[in-house]
Amino acid sequence: MGKSKSSRRWLQEHHDDRFVQRARQCGYRSRAAFKLIALDEKDRLFRPGMTVVDLGAAPGGWSQVAAERVGEGGRVVALDLLPMEPLAGVERIQGDFTEEAVLVRLEAALEGGRVDWVLSDMAPNMSGVRSVDQARAMYLVELALDLACRVLAPSGGLVVKAFQGEGFDTFLRQTRDTFHKVVIRKPEASRARSRELYLVAKGLRMG
Predict the structure, then answer these.
(1) 3 is catalytic
(2) How far is residue 193 from each of residues 50, 144, 164, 189, 197, measured CA to CA in Å?
(3) Which domain holds residue 109?
(4) Catalytic: which of 161, 181, 186, 202?
(5) Which pLDDT tens digit goes with each residue over 17-28?
(6) Is residue 6 included in any domain, yes or no?
(7) Which residues make beta-bridge pairs with 78?
(8) What pTM does this model have?
(9) For 119, how many CA atoms within 13 A lie in the half-sphere containing its CB?
């Protein structure tokens, strides 16, 4: 059966996308790498030696950028439901982030060490029903925030993709209650029609 008009249009747009082309040229696994690069340039996220957890990591674009920035003395732990090909300087955990057993595995891998950044570019599998997809997306960002509270160092931060819609304002308030500084970003590599935004939260409030 032939491809639908919408899928053909998406493939053509993807092929023509300058960030897709740049990702190929630079050796990044996805165009999403340029979203994190832009956030790092704007908000100065990374320093050598940092420990980073990357949620929803596959195929590995964000993990690549984080590993480059933290260097050999740093650590990147990537988690995703999907398998991910090995990456230099990146430890991989495959599992469903919504399952407590997988979180236990992640925390065990950290061996009690505190984390400097929790990154989340997670998005649910889209059903096409906007209200359902929004609820699923907000559930994932709430889990990311909960993990950040569990593993971050006092000076640590969270970068999380969220979608504008029901629940976003509540989540934004929760994040501002949890961190000293929270800004909203829309990197150039984020497609204009997408409802996605990125929250960059710094300075975990303790107690």
Answers:
(1) no
(2) 34, 24, 12, 11, 11
(3) 30-204
(4) 161
(5) 786 777 687 768
(6) no
(7) 54, 92
(8) 0.88
(9) 31
